[in-house]
Amino acid sequence: MTDYAVAPRDNRVGVNTYIMEHYTVAALTTGTNKHQWIAPFNLRIVDVIVNSEAGGSGGTSTIVDVNRNGTTIYTTQANRPTLLLADTGQYAEAPDATLRCNAGDVIAYDIDQITSTGPTLTTVTVVCEGL
Fold first, then answer.
1. CA neighbours within 13 Å on the CB side: how many for 43?
2. How far is CA 18 from CA 54, 102, 119, in A?
3. Residue 115 within any structural domain of the chain
4. CA–CA separation, 15 vs 12, rounded Å?
5. Is residue 1 part of a domain?
6. What pLDDT is stored for residue 72 in this prediction?
7. Does residue 20 surpass a pLDDT of 60?
8. CATH value at residue 114
9. What pTM value is reported for the model?
10. Residues 71-104 pLDDT 10s
């Protein structure tokens, strides 16, 4: 996997937006803590965006989960970002509620399920706002 560091940026007037992003060109496999970030300051997770350049095939969909300090941010598991069979493109799913994180909290993503032949996951992006 190839990791690219992302710096904080303010891309909306009046809102301090912080982007945590992981980029990879590897074929997707299931597992926990595929990538971790440490919250640099108090923030709120407002969106999770998953991008897939190449779709998978098989009998199931691909499901991504995001955790804060080891606990999912999706209290309703059906709300996790899900890439349907053979789908490509960008998929977004906000947490069930606006989730507050404190400086030093560990944010990580898991791949809970993949298609039989896993797609290539290009990026997982966690969009946050500073508090």
1. 26
2. 27, 14, 27
3. yes
4. 6
5. no
6. 93
7. yes
8. 2.60.120
9. 0.78
10. 999 988 888 888 777 677 777 788 877 788 999 9
